[in-house]
Specification:
By secondary structure, the protein is α/β, with parallel strands linked by helices. About 50% of the residues lie in helices and about 10% in strands. Strands 3-2-6-7-1-8 form a six-stranded parallel sheet, with helices on both faces. It has a six-stranded parallel sheet with strand order 9-14-13-10-12-11. β15 (about 610-615) and β16 form a beta hairpin. The N and C termini lie far apart (about 65 Å). About 40% of the residues are buried. The protein binds a DNA duplex through α4, α5, α10, α20 and α27.
Length: about 650
DNA sequence: CAAAACTGCCTTTTT
DNA sequence: GGCAGTTTTG
């Protein structure tokens, strides 16, 4: 492909970013300013300058982003793109870790455990250090451990740096947690990043190999980078210093998951000699929408100064609607959508309803169903969270790795085989004392039903090579009478049907995998499933369906819609009450900013005057962000509960003391 | 050991 | 108000 085409239709700033010769580059890309375009063109440009595809590493946060990036580069340069490494942080790290597992004393065939396995593991860890769950809640411990891992802090360092008793408790739990994981031959999601960081830190030869291999690094959504990801990038890039990052600090909304906005704010300091390029021309939204966005985000103090400039021209003003309650909010929006579509002015796919919390869409779903409007609720319970899916995957993992403790505990009595809490507790006690895996402890204690179960799994594993993975799974489920278990748990035909369908779907996934992969292995399948994310719904032709989209503001980042409803703009909801208490309102404001900038042509902001919360109706004040986007100053103490609507019983509630300030 | 009653919680969730 | 996770009961 000709170099001229790669550089066609770029504005001066985009052109500078695409042709930046080398060295650290920070592209501050405002919403809708052509961020992805800059990355893909830059890759194409590097290739056109004769740089080998295999020396380029482009990392993203989601599988979807990685896939899209690869597709778009392929469109530009053709099959030459095959040699590129375009991957999520996590899958890149899995590859590196598998290759060098021995260096960290890791099993090469480690499995990746998910969130609920993590919780099981943390409980095991607490048991091991004889810490009652009352003194440190498993969930709280896990959150702290995850944050430590995200900051690239090892158990040793956490212990050494513990400032108080609680820190030390967490650190000891962390250490025990890692030991349980290792004994289960497992790593968690955070480990993929942390351990890769440790590997690069401690093993100079591995570091050098990666530095020589990946001479050009490109990172998308850099504002979402956490400490561990930063360490990995820094280590690989420190030799050749060709690190190009693209992001928008104003769209950093994953701080609560360990993303560290300072990484983008301090990039120039961390990488001296950085060229900074601002992309401030927005190609998505009309003027009034951009004005609203600018007016809101201006109130944040921790940010790179930027102002979005429009290129789409004027448009209709942003609407701010006030409704009595959440029912009216839903009713009005749904009937408006129906009306617009019937008038032929829009199609369902033009609309998105964006909200802060997962409980908000309920009432919208009701109204949409009643109006027979097709919709897609993004997120919520994922396919991989379904009980049956998790059971079957646990069987698989256990077959591959009999030491996998979380998986064993999950299915040790599924279907029921007479192994209750007492037996399990006793066996886990032995396992901890002897330092052996739970599976081995069951074997040693001679718990016959479990031994038989483990034998069934071993038979299954042995049969995979001859009959193939999907067929073997089918036989295993038959041998375990899993269909009867479903029938037992779900007597009514409808839910039983749904559960059976979920199992069928896993078999489909396995069939698909077996056809594609070479050679197909159970480990490969499990890894793919662990790192996969769900695809948006598509019709038979692979086109997105014409449906109204319902999703959280978090899920909306990176997307755009002609018509957006940003609902529930109330104090306590957006910004969320907890963010007010925890002093993270700036992140909420970025969330608001993300929501506003999703809209191309029409933006409608709504709020309810009262809303049912925790089974009680409460008065709601307009969000401070609503005042901000009008250019007004919000009233002084917006967090105080509304005097008018608040229920009188509030006064008698012991909690009301904290509200009075 | 499994079903029934009972708490306690309650933001967001790229991998 | 609703659910999941835990404790109590049969």
């Amino acid at each position: 492909m000709r170099s001229a085409d790669i550089l066609a239709d770029l504005n001066p700033e985009q052109l500078r970013a695409v042709t930046h010769p080398g060295g650290p580059l920070l592209v501050l890309a405002g919403a809708g300013s052509g961020k992805t375009r800059v990355i893909t063109r830059r890759i194409a440009h590097l290739l056109s300058r004769g740089i080998a595809a295999r020396s380029i590493l482009a990392v993203t946060f989601t599988n979807k982003a990685a896939r899209e990036m690869r597709e778009r580069v392929t469109e530009l340069v053709g099959p030459g793109a095959k040699e590129l490494t375009v991957s999520t942080f996590h899958s890149f790290c899995v590859r590196v870790l598998r290759e060098h597992a021995d260096r960290l004393g890791l099993h090469r065939g480690f499995t990746i455990c998910d969130e609920s396995d993590q919780l099981t593991t943390v409980k095991a860890a607490l048991r091991e250090i004889r810490l009652p769950e009352t003194s440190l809640h498993p969930k709280a411990a896990l959150a702290r451990i995850s944050l430590l891992k995200n900051r690239c802090v090892t158990p040793g360092r956490a212990l050494a740096e513990a400032a108080d008793d609680f820190d030390e408790l967490v650190a000891r739990t962390y250490r025990a947690y890692d030991e349980v994981l290792r004994r289960s031959r497992s790593v968690d999601f955070d480990d993929l990043l942390l351990l890769t960081g440790v590997l690069l830190d401690r093993h100079a030869d591995v570091r050098r190999r990666l530095q020589e291999r990946y001479r050009h690094l490109l990172v998308d959504e850099y504002q979402d980078t956490n400490g561990a990801q930063y360490e990995i990038l820094r280590r690989i890039a420190e030799k050749h210093r060709n690190l190009a990052v693209v992001g928008d600090d104003d769209q950093s909304i994953y701080g609560w998951r360990g993303a560290d906005i300072r990484k983008i704010l301090n990039f120039e300091r961390d990488f001296p000699g950085t060229e900074v390029i601002r992309l401030e021309t927005n190609y998505r939204s009309t003027e009034p929408i951009l004005e609203a966005a600018n007016r809101v985000i201006r109130h944040n103090r921790s940010r790179h100064e930027k102002t979005l400039r429009g290129s789409c021209g004027p448009g209709e003003p942003v609407r701010i609607l006030e409704m009595e309650d959440e029912e009216n909010e839903a009713e009005l929006i749904v009937s408006e959508i129906g009306f617009e579509v019937r008038q032929g002015r829009a199609k369902f796919g033009d609309f998105a309803i964006l909200f802060r919390t997962q409980m908000q869409p309920r009432v919208f779903e009701g109204r949409l169903r009643a109006s027979r409007i097709p919709y897609d609720l993004v997120g919520g319970m994922s396919f991989f969270d379904r009980k049956e899916v998790r059971d079957v995957l646990a069987y698989l993992r256990l077959a591959v790795n009999p030491d996998d403790e979380p998986s064993l505990l999950r299915v040790v009595n599924v279907p029921p085989r007479g192994v209750g809490k007492t037996t399990v507790d006793r066996t886990l006690e032995t396992a901890a004392k002897e330092g052996i895996s739970a599976g081995a402890a069951f074997e040693r204690a001679g718990v016959e039903p479990v031994r038989a179960f483990l034998r069934t799994l071993a038979d299954f594993a042995a049969r995979i090579p001859s009959v193939g993975l999907p067929q073997a799974i089918r036989q295993l489920l038959g041998a375990l009478r899993y269909d009867q278990e479903i029938a037992r748990c779900y007597p009514d035909a409808v839910s039983r049907q749904a559960r059976t369908a979920a199992v069928e779907e896993i078999l489909n996934l396995a069939e698909n995998y077996a056809r594609r992969a070479q050679p197909p292995t159970p480990d490969g399948f499990l890894e793919e499933v662990a790192l996969a994310s769900e695809e948006p719904e598509e019709d038979e032709k692979g086109r997105p369906r014409d449906v109204v989209t319902l999703m959280t503001l978090h899920a909306a980042k990176g997307l755009e819609f002609p018509r957006v409803y940003l609902v529930g703009c109330e104090e306590g909801l957006l910004p969320h009450q907890r963010s007010v208490e925890e002093n993270t309102v700036e992140e909420e404001r970025r969330l608001m900013y993300v929501g506003i900038t999703r809209a191309r042509r029409r933006l409608t902001i709504t709020r309810a005057k009262t809303r049912a919360k925790y089974g009680r109706r409460e008065g709601c004040l307009p969000s401070r962000f609503v005042f901000e986007l009008r250019g007004e100053t919000p009233p002084a103490a917006p967090a105080a509960p509304s005097a008018k609507q608040a229920a009188p019983r509030r006064a008698s509630s012991p909690r009301s003391a904290r509200g009075a300030r």
